[in-house]
Write a structure and sequence with these properties.
By secondary structure, the protein is mainly α. Helix content is 82%, strand content 0%.
Amino acid sequence: MKENKLTSLEFKWVLYDVGNSAFILLVTTIIPIYFNSISKAQGIAESDYLSYWSYAASISTLIVALAGPILGTFADYKGQKKKIFLASALCGAIGLACFWIPNSWLGFLALYVAAKVAYSLSLIFYDAMINDVTTDERMDMVSTKGYAWGYIGSVIPFIISLVFILFYDKIGMTMTTAMIIAFLLNAVWWIAFTLPLVSSYKQKYFVERQPHAVRQTFARLAQTLGEAKQRKKVFLFLLAFFFFIDGVYTIIDMATAYGTSLGLDTTGLLLALLVTQIVAFPASLIFATLSKTKNSESLIKVCIIAYFLIALYAVQLDKQWEFWLLAVAVGCFQGGIQALSRSYYAKIIPEESSGEYFGIFDICGKGASFLGTFLMGFITQITGHQNLGVAAISVMFLIGYFFFHKTCQIKD
């Protein structure tokens, strides 16, 4: 086997990134603008719109932080991981397909929270599958290619959706019809790229199911939390990850909402974030190549520093061209920091307990990002200045770098 050639199972694992990334691209671009139009029609102020969107993102990630470790622990039982993964992915896709139904801003936010929770839960089990689909030596490469192909693959349904949304009147349809097509198209895309992995995946590492499974699940979770504290390298990495990935996901979740609240042209925002996806594809592959000759610890440090500078730059952002520059910069490092963090963590945890450990990982990642989105929304609401909300995010990267540097000093 060629070193860079993916096996059939690795390829199908990568395909799920292609499928679910369509949802998250929609959530970070078109959907905040769609929500803005609903809330504005119902008399919600621009600054409140950003705050409500921030709070919804915070609620969804908080739910995942609470449910993720429990479901992740249960998924480690023999034959459970694939079932729970499929259920989460299907619930998320069905929620996305129904986004056009609510006609009130509160109803839409409730459905958004439900779909985002299902999406995030599916990623816990998906990330935990990496130990079953590849080896430690190939993990950085496979993980990075997942993000890379996810970025470029998600662009296809996004561009088709964008054509309908931007030119609906010329095509001869209403905006509502265009949005229905966009939601349904991306939901079908998500499901289509989920099925290949589901059809081939087999759980190699597992824990035998015991009597009183629910009680045993909580007991094992408590045991794992205790073990994580004893495993100093794992504990410090999770602490570092909590802070630096919090900043990353806040920037991803809030970029369009932030630009919209500043009054920037929405079409320009959408195209700029399309550029982010396109730039992220080759940038992620570059990180995959670098991971063969450079250790992942050094590469993660570079990404954290880059994101700190990006957050500082965003504080003064108030022009369209500045947002474009921000979008390109994010694209250069987004895939690298996510993929390398995922594979780095997978290599330092016990393989047979990957589900429960990735459940904890999700608390410190997507589950913990409620802090960044909440801070951004809260500071914006009490000060009336969106830029001050962004300033709080830059501090996350400094704290994350400090703890990651401590992690790197511990020998395996």
